[in-house]
Amino acid sequence: MEAKQYIGEGWKHAILIIGAIVVLLPFYMMVSMSLKSQQEIQSISGGLIGAQETQTFPVCVKTGYSEEECTMKPYKYNYWFAFEKAPIPRYLMNGVIVTLSIFIIQVLVALPCAYALAKLRFYGREFVFSMVLFCLLIPVHGIALPLYVMLAQAGLVDTYSALILPWTISVFGIFLMRQFFMTVPDELIDAARMDGMGEYAIVWKVMLPTAIPALLAFAIFSVVAHWNDYFWPRMVITGNRDLFTPPLGIREFRGGIDSDEFGPMMASIVTVTVPLIVAFIIAQKRFIEGITLTGMK
Amino acid sequence: MGTISLKNISKSFGSTQVLNNLNVDIQDGEFLTLVGPSGCGKSTLLRIIAGLEQQTSGDVLIDNKNVNKIRASERDLAMVFQSYALYPHLTVRRNLETPLRLRDYNAFERLPLIGNFSPNKKSKTESINQLVNKTSETLQISELLDRKPGQLSGGQRQRVALGRAMVREPVAFLMDEPLSNLDAALRVHMRSELSELHNSLKTTFVYVTHDQAEALTMSSRMAVMIDGNLLQLDTPQEVYDNPSSLSVAQFVGSPKINIFNGSSDSSGTVNFLNVNLKRKSSESNSDLHIGIRPEHLEITNDKDENTFGGTVAYRENLGSDIYFHVNIEDNSKKIIVRGLPQFTHQITNGSSVNIKRDSNKALLFNQTGMRIHFNNAMG
Q: pTM for the full model?
């Protein structure tokens, strides 16, 4: 390659690097603040990890711990206090229960539905599909209140059901899987029928395995959306802290008796974010395959 | 046993009539080809036999039993598809096992893990393994058993697809253009393999193709279908030599049969171009189509009352044969003449040639395309 070409490539990379910095900066701040002491955060000093001087933390003492217990290095204090102040493992577990339940039920509903819309001929199929597209256009916030009222009438507010039920039918999932199933050759389904499979067996034994890449893409959309969702849990979980999902949990660090203490707050946010990032890295390759929908020929 | 009878089968999709009152009797052990141009309904007919499609009216009988209401999987037929339709996520072995597992295991035995506690499962698994091994040896795919379909070549996938059909030992095989996705050389090779397989299995084959060469080479009988109608059902030789209509004559044979416009006079003497046929038509005083196949025409040096002239427009060399596309006088269509390389190597594009026909080979058709016979077989 000649020098000129290097310069051309260099420009592209420079722009990409700037873009990457803009996107990553908040995450850098988050991690950095979760390691530093309150003074360093407020004076914006100390670089990435701060001086890490052992000190006594006044908020901790105010909460009722002895001075000895409250004397440690800032990074340790931030994470320790985050877990002391709020039952973060409980929140994380709630997050897992809710997002996994939602995803599994969504798949149980969306796959047969998408299969019927893509591969079966029945009267009114086009109408049903147009209703699916129509439902894609309805904003969640528009129907939040009626949904809440219905759940309240059913006595389900402040339960896991309230967190899970409204999301079990994902029109986006139906649409995505239907588009993928359209690319699966009809002959494969006919072959399965000749082999003696019923329609449900075809969905679970033939369509599901061929649709793994698309399903993974959908999994990421679904899990990320519901793991990070703050709006809906805030509405239907009114008092019971045992049902808090991670985003609701983070809110516990805002305000209160001791005003805002950013270190433990950021530590809790890191704890909540890490599982998603790890999951994404594991699924990354499959995820990109799924998005481009090039799973099978 | 494996007889299949189709009685008055009609099929329409909405207002489009796809199959028109078809009657076919397929005998046990026969290799029957359904052949026709694309869109003629042959695949639909096969799918009706398979039970994947429901006929609008008429009956399907397998071994003299009406199967109209019987599901595809219970008709004991096996089907091979054009795209092979192997399960992409399963190994070759599992692909071959699948139809047997679904047939032999009951619902409980198919359950993962707990299914293994069923007392009969072990012996069933053994018999499945035996069948799979036997089939894969017959088709020489034993070394492929642990691979996934994605790792196989087209020909290997074709064999696996055949194997998946064979393991069940069905009463009949249905094949929907199984060779269309293969390259030309492999296709010719697989033709002979399929014929051999048919000979050794002695099971009924129903084979759908748009390729008249496949139909001619492999079948014991071929059914020519055009526009949802069954035009002729006979042995390949008979269909080729004695087509029942102009459409059949034009569809079967490559290159296509030459059609000349002509007429018969009151005595039944047939005339086209400047040539009179010696045989007399049974239909006098009418306009006719005269069909002569390229191999029954010959380029000659002599010019007499039985020859006609033309100019070579294109010379198509196939090695063993040369086909000349010739513009003839007072005819806008080109006709095709076969020549042997050793006699015609000096003829090039643009040469003027005389064309002679072999006697007794012309076929007559009337204006509606129906075959007309000669009064006698002389001359």
A: 0.81
